[in-house]
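The data are passed on as follows:
___
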Amino acid sequence: MWRNVAKRLTGKQPAPDPGPSPRDLERVDRILSKISEETFLVFDLLKDGMVKEASFKTVEESITKNSILATFEQVRSDAYGDVAQIAREHARRFAQAALDMPEPQQRQFALSVAQAFERFSKQLQVAQRKLSEAELGGAAALKEPKA
């Protein structure tokens, strides 16, 4: 039985990489937008410094750094959600395969694997929820005015 599975798995050719997803391209555009916004502020302050007294205190907010960190947190959260969805799909497949198994030991093994994938999926969802809550809390802290 396992040899047949191994033969099927090794016979598949790897699919070509489709490239960045639209979601990734959107994130890159947001980061580049923040970088250009901060660069504009710096050059504007440099221009003002040539004419009058200027300070870089307003740029200390690190617009780009905060934007990139928020994007990374969003990517992590999305990755947890994506992997949880894949784990649920595998759990469903193993549960379906267990119905077709002729021997009780094989059926029990397939059900055990399905349950393990389901538990893993739930753990990922909890981690994703905590990360999303932390992200929302961090975003609220970034928007609050500094005293």
